Amino acid sequence: MKDESLKDGVIKDLVLLSCVGLRPVFVHGGGPEINQWLGKLGILPKFEGGLRVTDEATMEIVEMVLVGKVNKSLVSLINKAGGIGVGLCGKDARMITARPTRGGSLGLVGEVSSIDTSILRNIIKSGAIPVIASVAADHEGKAYNINADTAAGEIAASLGAEKLILLTDVPGIMMDMSDPNSLVREISIQGIRKLVDEGKVSGGMIPKVECCIRSLAQGVRTASIIDGRLSHSLLLEILTDEGAGTMIVG
């Protein structure tokens, strides 16, 4: 998301996969953009356990940036690359119903209470690519910021997706962060839980791993955490045996 040429490459690969018969659903956040706009307005971002703490003022910016700016920019890139992008957020057609995160210390950061993918199925059937911003509302219509990885995992499970892929700015799960050769190519749920317990998976990677485990438990066949900085990482992950990061299997 930070590098325009990388973003352009991911979008073109997404459109290519769509053209050859795969049916991608694209879920996004936009942390760097949000931070940029918070900075312009003099609001300091805070994080707890890898998740953004979101007060009322921050939530207003999150929704404006994710739904109004980032989402439409990604849709435009898909259309420019020859695909058909349809921009949505979790509020549309009650796709994602949110509830406050347990404990409430993160403010307006929500958990997924329920998913309704009926609108998505119609879009997918038409051959278009749904592009979903991770903003949702509760039953009262109050807006919540949902972690994009979490939203993607729950949507994947609800759709019965073959594969969940999280694009990150690290090579994947590493046994030793200082050793690029220690990348774990494939691991079971039990194996990844052991790495978390041993402290080898920490910080912002924990929510990603948890979301992969949840989606696998709900029927998604494989979940991968891949290096989005690698050129054509999406194609490498889907079309080659070696992949482009770490694949977690049930």
Automatic annotation (TrEMBL):
A Gene Ontology cellular-component term: chloroplast thylakoid
Domain Aspartate/glutamate/uridylate kinase as annotated: residue spans: 9-227
Signal peptide bounds: none
The name this protein goes by in its record: acetylglutamate kinase
Top-tier EC class: transferase
InterPro entries attached to this UniProt entry: AceGlu_kinase-like_sf, AcgluKinase_fam, ArgB, Asp/Glu/Uridylate_kinase, Glu/AcGlu_kinase, NAGK-C
Pfam families the record matches: AA_kinase
Pathway in which the depicted protein is active: Amino-acid biosynthesis; L-arginine biosynthesis; N(2)-acetyl-L-ornithine from L-glutamate: step 2/4
A GO MF label: acetylglutamate kinase activity
UniProt-listed NCBIfam families: argB
EC number annotated for this UniProt entry: 2.7.2.8
Biological process according to GO: L-arginine biosynthetic process
Keywords carried by this UniProt record: Amino-acid biosynthesis, Arginine biosynthesis, ATP-binding, Kinase, Nucleotide-binding, Transferase
